[in-house]
């Protein structure tokens, strides 16, 4: 995943993808492994109460 060097816009499009939860999970995994720890909450905040996972 790290070798892909996705842009911020591409990562956001992965996390809001509606066709498959697996694509969204891949986006969140990319964020988890490529972003500094102090920025993770900023990325994950709006998805913590996601109705799709309930």
Protein described:
- This protein has 54 residues and is an all-alpha fold.
- It has one domain (2-53).
- The protein has 3 helices and no strands.
- Helix 1 packs across helix 2.
- The radius of gyration is 11 Å and the shape is globular.
- 4% of the residues are buried.
What key phrases describe this protein's structure?
mainly alpha, mRNA processing, single chain, 54 residues, spliceosome, mRNA splicing
Give the helices and strands, then pairings:
Layout: H1 8-15, H2 21-34, H3 40-44
Short description:
It is found in: Nucleus. By secondary structure, the protein is mainly alpha-helical. The protein has 3 helices and no strands.
Q: Which outline best applies?
A: globular
**Can you count the beta strands?**
0
Secondary structure class reads mainly alpha
Major sheet, described briefly? none
Assess the beta-strand content as a share of residues: under 5%
Domain tally: 1
Helix segment count? Answer: 3
Radius of gyration: 11 Å
Relative helix content: 40-55%
SSE series: HHH
Between the first and last Cα atoms, what is the distance in angstroms?
A: 27 Å
Mean pLDDT: 89
């Amino acid at each position: 995943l790290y070798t892909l060097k996705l842009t911020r816009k591409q990562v956001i499009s992965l996390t809001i993808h509606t066709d498959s939860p697996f694509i969204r999970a891949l986006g969140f995994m990319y964020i988890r492994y490529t972003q500094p720890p102090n920025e993770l909450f900023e990325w994950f905040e709006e998805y913590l109460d996601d109705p799709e996972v309930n």
